[in-house]
Every structure is written in C-alpha cells, then in structure tokens.
Write a structure and sequence with these properties.
Pept_M24A_MAP1; four-stranded antiparallel beta sheet; Pept_M24; Creatine Amidinohydrolase; alpha+beta; aminopeptidase; protease; 25% strand; metalloaminopeptidase activity
Length: 278
Amino acid sequence: MVNYIEAATAPLKNTGAIRLYGPEAFEGMRKACNVTARCLDALAPMVKPGVTTNEIDRFVFEFGMDNHALPATLNYRGYRHSVCTSINHVVCHGIPDDKPLREGDIVNIDVTYVVDGWHGDSSRMYPVGEIKRAAERLLEVTHECLMRGIAAVRPGARTGAIGAAIQSYAEAQRCSVVRDFCGHGVGQLFHDVPNILHYGEVDEGPEIREGMIFTIEPMINLGKPHVKVLADGWTAVTRDRSLTAQYEHAVGVTATGCEIFTLSPAGLDRPGLPPLQG
C-alpha cells in the first residue's frame, strides 16, 4: 500500500511515504533547478574535442560556488566529483578523468545543485564535434522519450503511464530502455520515493498526485537494454557496448499536469541538435 504525506510535516529522511509539496517547495525547486539549468547551458560551448571531463567537473564546481550552490554529488556516498560524465557506451555515473573528449563522442552531463536545501537535478546529452547519424538519432529518440514521459504526468494517472509512454516510443524506434536505473522523488532529499520506472504499463505504480516532485531520466540504448557496473562501483556501461543516451528533467505535479523545473533558459535542452519547434 502506498502512503502519502505532507512534506512540510515529514521527517527529512526517506520514510517510504510519497511527499506532497506546497507552493513554497515549488519555488525552492525553481531556484535550485534554475542554477542547474544555467550551468548545463554554460557547458554547451565548452564541450568539444580535447576538453577533459575533469575540466568539466571543475567548471561545475566553480559555477556552483559562484551561484551559492553546492554540487550534491560531491562526497555523496564517497563520490569525489561535482558531476557525472557518461561517454558513448557509459549509461550513467561516469567518473570525470583526464582523458580528452574525442570528435564523434556523445556525453551525458548530469548536474545536481543544492540551493537553500533544495536539489535541482538534471542532465543533458552533448555531441562532441560532428557525430554520426546513428548517434544523432539516438539523442533525438531519447529526448523525445523524456518529453513523452513528461506528457503522461497528471493527477490521477499512475507512474506506470510515464514508463509506458517512454517504452512504447523507444521500442517503436528499435531502441531499448535500461531497466537497472530509474527516476526518483527529489526535493529536500536527493533521492526519495517514488521510483519512476521508464518502462511498464499504464495501470501500474503509485497514483500521481498534485504536489509530487520527481525526476524522469530515461536511459535509451541502440542495442540491448542490459548493463553492468564496473569495478569502481559507479560506472554503468552497456553490456554489448552499444551507444546509450539519457536526458533528465525534474518536474512538479500540478492540478492539470506538471511543471518542468529544469528547462533551459537559453533553449538548449538539446544542445547540438536543432531546437524544437512550437
């Protein structure tokens, strides 16, 4: 049985109950997510051949300091960096290093800033120079999966509707959906319930209610959906070494749908790809 609790009266820990937030929380999320989105915008011209992911990591840390924001991943469960950088066949949680990006790479940059106790969590894909059409198509499909998942969010629906929307589109495009990782509740906690699966059936999962805040972050592979975690305990890769992509937004459920907190102020939600029309 799923329990719901007013976030304002809930303890600041994962209790297994789904938090329902009010207007002040939505305003807090807007501020935190705006810093995250502006950082991801600022990274767009920086991502090019020859740049290292350690340089990106330093930029994210310094951007946060300049904006009174703390990178949530820094020292989180022993993680020593301010960002995750996942290249080509790395599904998620890629660790920054001194290896330069190469022409034709695709990289996911996942940033979470904490501002006044609120977590702004988002990620985008960035092409490195000119990329192959198969990679470009994967980015297009993955972003469309994200937006179709967001379009399924409304009070009274179930979280399975999000996953069903993503899975049906991805598989129609001959791609696969990673099952091992999912979206999650977010707010004053970095990771909270509910889990937001990116596959499933419309009548599965908890009921979506006004005031819920969570991430949607589908990971879509050109090959099979299977992944493995490397010996470092963080880096997840596709088992068949196929290309993978991910986009992520944090959303808050409203009376009629949802508000996307992490939209790009500069219209760079798909950096390196043509802007969406309409």
